[in-house]
Amino acid sequence: MVKIHYWILIAAVSGIIGCTTDSDEAVQTEVKPAYTDHQQTSWRERYLALGRETYQAACASCHDQGKDSSPTMGDRESWADRSPLWSAVLIEHAKSGYLGMPSKGGQSGLSDIEVQAAGEYMLSETFPELPRD
After folding, report:
1. Using one digit for the tens of pLDDT, what is the confidence trace for 13-57?
2. For 3, 4, 55, 96, which has the most beta carbons within 10 A of its beta carbon?
């Protein structure tokens, strides 16, 4: 009697593993971020593409028009009174919030990497000649 239960257990586990493997492979082949094409672009281009997507989704509503005195992307003058520490301070303010700016642009679901990429994107568009971290 014990031997029969042992074989039933082995068959059940094998069936579960077989089903799980097929479904995991299907999920892995379907989930791909739109901005990644590793053969065609560098890591920097992919990072800035993520930054552009994040900027458009969370930052543009204020930073395109300079809402509430926010620095406008592409307008060097609006950045003139900002910290000379640039990205370190900018990224920290973007993550934590600063004055009237909510943390993560009011999008609490954003990852720190997405926020960082958006900040780098803003700086690269406003000051393309400056070296980046």
Report:
1. 444 444 444 444 433 333 345 554 556 688 989 999 999 999 999
2. 55
CA distances from 69 to 13, 22, 61, 94, 106 (A): 61, 53, 13, 15, 17
pLDDT at 9: 44
DSSP designation for 130: S
Q: Rounded distance, CA 24 to CA 90, Å?
A: 39
**What one-letter code names the amino acid at 64?**
D
Predicted confidence (pLDDT) per residue in 51-76, tens digit: 999 999 999 999 999 888 888 989 98
Q: Which residue in the block uniquely carries the two structure tokens 């074989």?
A: 7
Q: What is the 3-state secondary structure (H, E, C) of 43-87?
A: HHHHHHHHHHHHHHHHHHHHHCCCHHHCCCCCCHHHHCCCCCCCH
Q: How far apart are CA 73 and CA 59, in angstroms?
A: 10
Nearest CA among 127, 116, 125 for reference residue 54: 116
Dig out the tokens for 132 from the structure: 């980046």
DSSP percent split of the chain into helix, strand, coil, nearest 5: 65, 0, 35
